[in-house]
Structures are given as C-alpha cells and as structure tokens.
Amino acid sequence: MTRFIALSRPLAAAARVQVARSAIATRSAIQIRSYSAEHQEESFEHFTERFVKFFDNVDDLFELQRGLNNAFGYDLVPSPSVIEAALKAARRVNDYPTAVRILEGLKVKAGSEALYKQYMDELAPLKAQLGVETKEELGV
Questions:
Q1: Residue 67 clears pLDDT 80, i.e. is over it
Q2: pTM over 0.85
Q3: H/E element holding 44?
Q4: Terminal CA-to-CA distance of the chain, rounded, Å?
Q5: From CA 16, how far away is CA 27, in angstroms rounded?
Q6: Cα–Cα distance between 67 and 74 in angstroms, integer?
Q7: What is the CB neighbour count within 10 angstroms for residue 123?
Q8: More confident residue, 27 or 109
Q9: Exposed, middle or buried by CB within 10 Å (0-12, 13-18, 19+), for 78?
Q10: What is the overall mean pLDDT for the chain?
C-alpha cells in the first residue's frame, strides 16, 4: 500500500502541472472582448425621458421598485419629472409607503438640504394632490 502511495504522488503532481499549463494555453488562445467599449454615455435628458416613460407604464409594485432601484442607483439626482412620475406610479399601484420612501431616497440623493428644499418646493403641488407626506411630516 505504501508503495502505491509513493508512486501516485509524483503522478498527481505531474497531472497538476499539466492542467495548469493547459489552462494557461487556453486563456492565451481565447480572445477577450470588452463589452463596455461599445457603451455610449447617456445624457441627463435621455435618462430623464427613459425613466419618466418607464414610470408612466408601471403596472405593479415589483416593476415600480425595480425602476426606483435602477433610477436611484446612478450617480446623479433624478430630475423632478422623474420623481413626479415615480410618485404617480406609487399612488397608481396603491402603495403609499413606497411613495414616502421615494421622498426619503430623494433626500439622501440630494445630499444637501438646499437642493432637497428646492425639490420639495417644486413637488409641493403634486404632494398635496396625491396626499403624500414626507417621513418628517408624518412624525416618524
């Protein structure tokens, strides 16, 4: 039995070396394609138009939350028209907590109290029309 183990160790080591050489050869033979090279920059106007259209066509809560996750995932503050469309979609699918969370997300994304106040001033008529309040207004 010990003789078998003594003979199998060098064979196993040789097999590992062969597999490693094969992997290196395969990697160098495969052509690597960069998919991001074909990606173009999206303008803020196109971003706004795309998400307003998306939120105007939302039919259920899952799609609304998916769209919000995508919109707030970018390194920018969505325009007021995107926030308006998202708030209308939240009320259309009858999900008040998501409407409040949209305003919470806006506060975080705005980064400054002055910018957040500008958004709230612009959204005030829509908030009153839809009956949506911020977390602070609810006292939570």
A1: yes
A2: no
A3: helix 44-56
A4: 73
A5: 17
A6: 12
A7: 20
A8: 109
A9: buried
A10: 83
